[in-house]
Amino acid sequence: MKVALIAGATGLIGSQLLEILLADSYYDKVIAPTRKPLDIQHPKLINPIISFDKLSEHSNALKADDVYCCLGTTIKKARSKEAFRKVDLAYPLTFAQMAKENGSENFLLVSALGANKDSSIFYNKVKGETEEAISAVGIKSVHILRPSLLIGPRKEHRSGEDAAKFVYKYLDFLVPEKYKGIESIKVARAMIAFAKKEQPGIFIHESKDLQVF
Questions:
Q1: Count of domains forming the chain
Q2: Are strands 29-31 and 182-183 parallel, antiparallel or unpaired?
Q3: Could you tell me the CATH number of the domain that includes residue 151?
Q4: Catalytic residues
Q5: Measured at the alpha carbon of residue 80, what is the angle toward residues 76 and 82, in degrees to the nearest 5?
Q6: Which terminus of the chain has a smaller tally of CB atoms within 10 A, N or C?
Q7: Average pLDDT, whole number, for the chain?
């Protein structure tokens, strides 16, 4: 029996990923832990209601072959650097550590373009620290995806992205390939494709390489 787990199933990529996984016969069960019940039902879906601050207490209920981590927030939404680090570093790392303990084969992480632990930009620095920490956990196969600006049906409005989306839509020819915006559904598809390869090692996938999915 093949089991997938999604951390961040209510987000932009996570919600699209959940739909695809539920429809994919490759997986028999899909575990999607959330703080509040999801508004969908499916025979394959298991939706544990948990506190992400007490993840270790739910380890037995979160066993999966492949773990998809789509957790992420913004400084504005988190309201402090400490809260941001909790969502973007502490939670993903705890999921990775549990995945290792539970014998998961694959861990797939949504990071960001420009992630670098030595960056002077706080957001990029934390993303880089998260990548490094998870890579050191010792999971057989780790895939790190670094998408550029995500384009898709967000549930919350992010005013700062509107201008960028205008540029990507109407002035796309001026944007270097590396920085082009990417549809969130492509990132979700790429994650599944990488998981199915079952290749041991640590792999980093830049945004321009995800555009083909």
A1: 1
A2: unpaired
A3: 3.40.50.720
A4: 123, 127
A5: 135
A6: N
A7: 92
